Fold:
Amino acid sequence: MNINDLFYKAAELYKKLTGIEANHQTNLGVIIADQYREQLAALTSEDMANICDNREYASILSRNRENSVFYRDCVILLLYCLIDKNPNEVPKKWPFEQEYLRVIYSNAGVNPQAFGID
Structure:
């Protein structure tokens, strides 16, 4: 699946989970896509569906929307897919402060310290 298709799918799934329209082309999304282009290209529709089948993610998005730009952007779903598929790789290329990633991992139910995120 190409990157643009992934973002369209992520925006659709974001709306399905939250009831809120998500822009599929944001600066945040572009920055993250540039860092993880190879890993994102390997994602499938099934990978994304697996994340969205877990209703806990709808709750996570709703709870955190007001406090973090990451949770107002559909790119968060792509990050959860990457974390689900290969949690070791995401921290190596993370373009922002580790604190953001620590929270994202924790909210996904993944121990960030297990992957070197303090």
The longest helix spans residues 3-18. The radius of gyration is 13 Å.
